[in-house]
């Protein structure tokens, strides 16, 4: 092999992938069937929220095994409405993880409540139930755990805490559509769960999100908030068909029949998406047994994640630090990503709520090494081998 082939691109070698074949860490899978489904919906009577949205909601509710599913414009909108439906308010505290996307904590903030972080477990990177207990005060009213990378949290322990302190739980299951915990689908636990259908997620509708619940009252409230909080059948105005009035501060988070058509078509392939994600991970895991200093995800007993992310940790024995590794992978035109910069590092949470670096040491320790390697169903075996070759050549160069 020539020196050019051995040397990583960051050190002057030829990149593993040419720039026009650069690879991201995730991405959608769109087939002709998906396109036809959207085109057909476009020719229907409704292109905003219509019967196809109802169909998609039923499909996801059946899949998760819950009574209600309410589709909205994004996972962020789903969190917003779930927080409002939970009744979070200005003197309340809501406990969540610092190792998540900002929207998870925004579910508390949008309703005027304070997000309180509880540290994570180093192995699963999920919120630590013991840390949750430590953060409970008399103002705590809610809990928003997030199933990191698709691996369900310690649901049983968290539900015991919620029960003990009468907390409303919103499971941020954006990563975990298709995952199970002791045979039970992620998202099927009380009180509510939310999903995202962003293109990198396990199923996509371009943008989109959903609130799922078994609770009739919460579902009614979310439905109403989604669509302006308008009472379309105001009592006493039966002979005034135009009489539609807002009952509270609502939003326009309506999902469209076009998105729902794509979602229904994608749900047909959810099992094959999971199979392909598992195959890619199996290949990574075999290869990484020979790579020192690259920690692969730990899977808890009884869970079957549909991995959304393949998040490894680059530690000292690898030979270079995470920053160098990420930049070296980018130089190979493989755009790995980091999930996430802990929320207490963000200026918003520091300025508004006084959090500081150092507050959540476990999350910070994990963050030091975190990198999400490419994982998406459209990756073929060659793509996977490219990632492995890039990782290997970067390590060889640094050791
Ligand atoms: C854990 C988590 N929560 C919430 C969101 C927000 O979802 P969306 O991008 O659909 O608003 C995301 C997506 O990025 C996420 O990963």
Automatic annotation (TrEMBL):
Q: Which UniProt keywords apply?
A: Aminotransferase, Pyridoxal phosphate, Transferase
Q: Name one Pfam family in it.
A: DegT_DnrJ_EryC1
Which GO molecular function terms does the record list?
Answer: pyridoxal phosphate binding; transaminase activity
Q: What InterPro entries does the entry give?
A: DegT/StrS_aminotransferase (IPR000653), PyrdxlP-dep_Trfase (IPR015424), PyrdxlP-dep_Trfase_major (IPR015421), PyrdxlP-dep_Trfase_small (IPR015422)
- Residue span of region Disordered: 1-27
Q: Which GO terms describe its biological process?
A: polysaccharide biosynthetic process
- Family that this chain belongs to: Belongs to the DegT/DnrJ/EryC1 family.
What name has this protein been given in UniProt? Aminotransferase class I/II-fold pyridoxal phosphate-dependent enzyme
């Amino acid at each position: 092999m020539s020196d050019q082939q051995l040397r990583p691109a960051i050190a002057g070698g030829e990149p593993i992938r040419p720039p026009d074949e650069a690879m991201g860490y995730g991405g959608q899978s769109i087939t002709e069937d998906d396109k036809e489904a959207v085109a057909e919906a476009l020719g229907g009577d409704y292109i905003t929220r219509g019967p196809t949205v109802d169909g998609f909601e039923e499909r996801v509710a059946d899949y998760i095994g819950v009574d209600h599913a309410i589709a909205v414009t994004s996972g962020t909108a789903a969190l917003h409405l779930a927080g409002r439906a939970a009744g979070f308010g200005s003197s309340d505290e809501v406990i969540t993880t610092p190792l998540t996307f900002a929207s998870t904590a925004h579910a508390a903030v949008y309703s005027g409540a304070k997000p309180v972080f509880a540290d994570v477990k180093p192995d699963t990177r999920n919120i630590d139930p013991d840390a949750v207990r430590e953060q409970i005060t008399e103002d705590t009213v809610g809990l928003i755990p997030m199933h990191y990378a698709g691996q369900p949290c310690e649901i049983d322990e968290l539900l015991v805490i919620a029960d003990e302190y009468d907390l409303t739980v919103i499971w941020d299951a954006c990563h975990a559509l298709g995952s199970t915990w002791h045979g039970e689908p992620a998202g099927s636990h009380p009180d509510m769960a939310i999903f995202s259908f962003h293109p990198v997620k396990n199923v996509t509708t371009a943008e989109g999100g959903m609130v799922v619940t078994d609770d009739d009252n919460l579902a009614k409230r979310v439905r109403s908030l989604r669509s302006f909080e308008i009472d379309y059948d105001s009592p006493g105005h039966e002979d005034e068909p135009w009489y539609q009035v807002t009952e509270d501060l609502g939003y326009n988070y309506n999902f469209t029949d076009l998105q729902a058509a794509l979602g229904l078509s994608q749900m047909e392939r959810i099992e094959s998406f999971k199979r392909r994600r598992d195959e890619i991970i199996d290949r990574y895991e075999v290869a990484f047994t020979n790579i020192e200093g690259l920690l692969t995800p730990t899977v808890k007993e009884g869970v079957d994640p549909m991995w959304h992310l393949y998040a490894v940790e680059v530690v000292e024995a690898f030979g270079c630090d995470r920053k160098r590794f990420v930049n070296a992978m980018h130089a190979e035109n493989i755009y790995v990503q980091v999930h996430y910069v802990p929320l207490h590092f963000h200026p918003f949470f520091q300025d508004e709520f006084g959090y500081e670096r150092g507050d959540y040491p476990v999350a910070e320790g994990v963050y030091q090494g975190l990198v999400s390697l490419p994982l998406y169903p459209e990756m073929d075996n060659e793509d996977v081998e490219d990632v492995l070759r890039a990782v290997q050549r970067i390590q060889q160069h640094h050791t």
